[in-house]
Amino acid sequence: VLKVATSADFAPFEFQGENDTDYQGFDMDLIRAIGKEMGTKVEINNISFDGLIPALKNNEIDAIIAGMSVTEERKAAVDFSDEYYISKFAYVRLKGDTSLNSIDDMKDKRLGAQLGTIQEQEAKKISEKTVVNEAITSLILELKNKNLDALVLEDVVASAYVSENPELEIFATKDMTD
Ligand code: ARG
After folding, report:
1. Ligand 1 centre and the CA of 2: distance in Å?
2. For a pocket test of ligand 1, which of 117, 133, 151 has the largest count of ligand atoms closer than 8 A to its C-beta?
C-alpha cells in the first residue's frame, strides 16, 4: 500500500467527493494512476496542509500530493517530482467591493491565506494584517462573514471557489515568479 496524504480543500486538484473518505480531483486521479503503474494500492489521507511535510518526515506517509509548490525551503526537507502545473496567485474579494482593486490596496486590509503555504508568505509581504488558517474552507467563510477583506489563493482554485460562492470574485492575479 502506498500511503499518501493531501489537503482536500484545493479543487480542482483535490477535494472531498461523495463522502469523507472519497477524494477527487486532478492530483487524486494522478496518484491513482501512479499506483496502478506501480502495481500498489493507494491509500489517501486528508490532513491539514501544514501537517503534510511533518507527516512525511515522521514516516507516517510515503508521499504527498497536494498542489504543493516546489520551493528551496521545502527542497531542503523533501524530494519533489517534476513540476506539472504552474499557477498564479489570485486575490479574491466580496463581489463589488470596489475599495479593493489592486494588490497595493491590501496594505492595511485583513488578507487571509492558508497556513504553511506560499500564499501565507505572499500575504505577509502585502499586508500587515494577514490572517492565517489551516483550512481554505474556513477562510472562505470568514471572507463571506466580512471578518476578512480578501484572500490570496491560486488562479484555478480561486475560480473553483468563486463558482461555488457567487458572492465572491477574483479581482487581481499575479505571476508567482514576479
Ligand atoms: N501551492 C501552494 C503551496 O505549495 C498552496 C498549496 C495548497 N494545497 C492544498 N491542497 N491546500 O504552498
Report:
1. 21
2. 117
Cβ–Cβ contacts within 10 Å for residue 152, how many?
A: 28
Lay out the sheet containing 14-16: strands in order across. Answer: 9-10, 14-16, 23-24
Q: Tens digits of per-residue pLDDT, 132-152?
A: 999 999 999 999 999 999 999
Say whether pLDDT at 20 is over 90: no
Task: Read off the C-alpha cell for 159.
Answer: 475560480
pTM score:
0.96
Q: How far is the CA of 79 from the centre of ligand 1 (A)?
A: 16
pLDDT, residue 89, reads 98
Any idea which residue has 498564479 for its cell?
88
